[in-house]
Amino acid sequence: MDDxxxxxxxxxxxxxxxxxxxxxEEQFALxxxxxxxxxxxxxxxxxxxxxxGNGPVVGNILYRMAKTAHxxxxxxxxxCVAHSQGGMGYMLQQTLTNVLHEHEIDVRVSxxxxxxxxxxxxxxxxxxxxxxxxxxxxxxxxxxAKETGWKFAEDSNRGYRRVVPSPLPLRILDTAAIEALIYxxxxxxxxxxxxxxxxxxxxxxxxxxxxxxxxxxxxALLANQxxxxxxxxxxxxxxxxLDFGKPTQRLLSEITAADAARYMAEGQFPPGSMGxxxxxxxxxxxxxxxxxxxxxxxxxFEALQGRAGTRIVR
Length: 314
Known about the structure:
alpha/beta
């Protein structure tokens, strides 16, 4: 296991928060800020592998497909995930390349369209839970559900969003290609949006399925498969907290996996908030990972020095 090799996972909102119009110029501007922080990590000698979420973007692609279905044949969900993976990966690749050039850091960046195997019998297919796309009012959501057959759920008291199946990742199929890029000194952008979900049939052939895999769980699996000593999951807060938002709120600097599991069982980390990150952290550590850091983008470098963020260790 390589302590200098780290997997850094961005949330989908990092480049597409709910308060933007969705213009490419807006997304490039946000990614530019993120890449300045990534350049600092590379200057520090870390070997980065980047992953990213795609919830807002893939949801918008699916919405666009639904609205034009009477004129153009809509693409299935796995291909929409591939579209979002390629588009977001391109923006991140180009922007990071330009930022590294400005900082005179001689490192190349490459985006890899990545397939991730899931279990076709995963119960998640029967219980859609992952929010994707834009927010709707209750009335709008009901109308869309009637028109398309989609499932909707309220998301963080901000409105209703479409929910889709989110099976657990079993295996990243392109690990050898990711390893080859790392060996060549290239920063890989891989498993975007949790990866393109595929299942393997009885003949050993792969086929896409309608789902969006949680990017934190895929990032954890990727970190294990490539022997990364650290998994960094970026979020909107500098540190994980107990009793979040309450007068008794307590920030956590370092906890063990056992502590994290206990707090999760007590309901400290809700499914729609910090829950998936803690769950992914525990999976990574169970499979032999060394440490997990959960922090905000602007504190990532300090967190890797032990001066910020929340560390979860075995």
